[in-house]
Design brief:
With about 130 residues, the chain is mostly helical. The protein has one domain (about 10-125). Helices cover about 85% and strands about 0% of the residues. Helix 4 (about 50-80) packs antiparallel against helix 5 (about 85-125). The chain is rod-shaped, with a radius of gyration of 20 Å. The model has no long low-confidence stretch (mean pLDDT about 85).
């Protein structure tokens, strides 16, 4: 599993930072929503969209990682005198890791955002 995270190349640390930011905002919103202190709807919704924003940014960064990985792989193929299909397949597999990680992060962030949004709506309507 750690190999997959390391396979993102230079996109590993930005994606990890975005994951930590999302986790921070999720924990903060869960504490706000489940707290006993009465808050208005605007107070509860403040900062909620940051979960969705950073999730989307991680998806974009993952796609950028894939595109740059494919670009680098194609440049190596152009320069190579002899091409081994196994090396090409491994290069393309690695280029998809950042996309998978970014899209998975976006999916989870969007799901959590939706659940928190529904919880806030039900808490403020009643």
């Amino acid at each position: 599993m750690l190999y997959l995270y390391g396979a993102c190349g230079p996109y590993f640390f930005p994606l990890m930072i975005m994951n930590l930011l999302i986790l921070f905002f999720v924990i903060r919103k869960i504490i706000d929503v489940t707290g006993n202190r009465k808050k208005t709807a605007s107070e509860l919704e403040y900062g909620l969209n940051s979960i969705l924003f950073w999730g989307f940014m991680s998806a974009l960064l993952g796609t950028l990682g894939q595109l740059s990985g494919i670009y680098n792989a194609l440049n190596i193929i152009i320069k190579a005198a002899e091409i081994n299909p196994r090396i090409i397949a491994e290069g393309f597999t690695i280029s998809f890791v950042s996309t998978l990680w970014g899209m998975l992060t976006f999916f989870v962030a969007a799901l959590i955002w939706y659940l928190l949004k529904c919880r806030i709506k039900s808490k403020t309507v009643l």
